[in-house]
Amino acid sequence: MKGIILYFSGSGNTKYIVNKTYEEFVKNGCELDVHSIEEKISLDFSAYDFLVIGFPKYFHDMPKIFFDYIRENLNYSSNEINTMIFSTGSENRATNYNEIEKVLSEKNYKVMVTKNFQMPNSFTINKNYEKNTRKDIRDIYEKTLLEIRELVVNFLTENTVKEKIGNWQSVFYKNINKYLTKDLYKNSSKFSVNDNCDKCNICVKSCPTMNIENIGEMIKFRDNCIMCCRCLNLCPKNAILYNDKEHLQYKENIDLIIS
């Protein structure tokens, strides 16, 4: 069997799950292609027997950048394609998959498995952020590896395993996500750089929405921020500020983004 994994990862946590999921499918004799939606390549989805999609959840829902990609780039399949959806987040709470499952169903993709993986907290600019301990991270990884192994077996044996939420809860999550993310772009004005910035342009090149520019040796943040905070975590000088403050960098999986 040949499958494809499509994903978006801001801090590297989702990419970690992608890599481990890939390894588990390969152990079970599958062949997989893996692509980030940032690659902007043309794909022939009819060449695959199954689909896996993964993303970091934004307020219990799918980030708009990923939802739009699936809706606009995933073509209708003449053959029904079994599909797995997973999300990652710092809280072990349900994710609203109802909207994306509806889109996939219309394109003849049958969702067999949905799963939210609890991962280390990477949102270091939150005023209530608590640094992950090594024990917490180790425990999380051990748990996710077991969950991935079980999910892949269920998926390949066509056992439906879904984390379901009710319709009212789905509407609530959708509205909360829409309300809390509609003005994300305004946060761009809260980012800046300090004198440690050496204009290496890593942030410019790695921003998934091309929100950062180097203009006349000045780093400028535009108005297309999605608050993934990849720039802050990647900066080798920790020179990126938020609200004029320096924040801890989340380095646990960030190397997976640039490798």
Please name the defining characteristics of this protein:
259 residues, two-stranded antiparallel ribbon, 8 helices, Alpha-Beta Plaits, Rossmann fold, alpha/beta, 5-stranded parallel beta sheet
Specify the helix fraction band.
Answer: 25-40%
Estimate the global geometry from the Cα principal axes: globular
Total number of beta strands: 9
- What structural category arises from helix and sheet content? alpha/beta
CATH class of the largest domain: Alpha Beta
Q: Helix and strand layout, with pairings?
A:
Blueprint: E1 2-7, H1 13-27, E2 31-36, E3 50-56, H2 64-73, E4 81-89, H3 98-106, E5 109-118, H4 134-156, H5 167-181, E6 191-193, H6 202-206, E7 212-215, E8 218-221, H7 230-234, E9 240-242, H8 255-258
Parallel strand pairs: 1-2, 1-3, 3-4, 4-5
Antiparallel strand pairs: 6-9, 7-8
Helix pairs in contact: 1-4
